């Protein structure tokens, strides 16, 4: 069993608009070099969307990010290097921080819920507080609608760590993802998807992807926690898109 791709890695571009926040430590090139060392065939750079209050990319940097990835592709020809983004799911309508002005710069779009995302309404800020402190049923419904509508209304490759930071009715999310051929992530650095969730949705037939969610270069291609989750859940490894036996 071997991992061939890691689509969820962060770089210093996730360190906030003024580069003052120490969130991720590696450069794009350092992540690529680590991926080569780990024997990966594909490495994706996927920094946080620009409506993340603390760790969002500077929207004006997107062209520079694209140019940097294209330059690295010329330098490292033995590995596929992709520019992705981890967008923020902003509200229960499924809006994400992606727009037509920059979409063509990215090879793929992932989306997930984050506490420090900037919602589109006061209700979204209230939901942040509920998720952080209360974990109410109302928040769970809001979170579920947010993920389901994000899947339905956007061109998304992967939903990252579904149910993490804000609980969801995972069966509803899984059914929407199955209908739109969107993969769900088993995140190596977060507790979701966990084995209980995977058992709940096993019969739906989703495709999954393992993501390191690396914030330092040495974490690229590290999937030990995710493999343990898969083993305990009993799901068929053939349903993990970035694994070969």
TrEMBL record:
Residues 5-91 form the Polymerase/histidinol phosphatase N-terminal domain. One of its GO terms (molecular function) is phosphoric ester hydrolase activity. One of its GO terms (cellular component) is cytosol. SMART domains: POLIIIAc. It comes from the Bacteria. Pfam families: PHP. InterPro entries: PHP_dom, PHP_phosphatase, Pol/His_phosphatase_N, Pol/histidinol_Pase-like. This is PHP domain-containing protein.
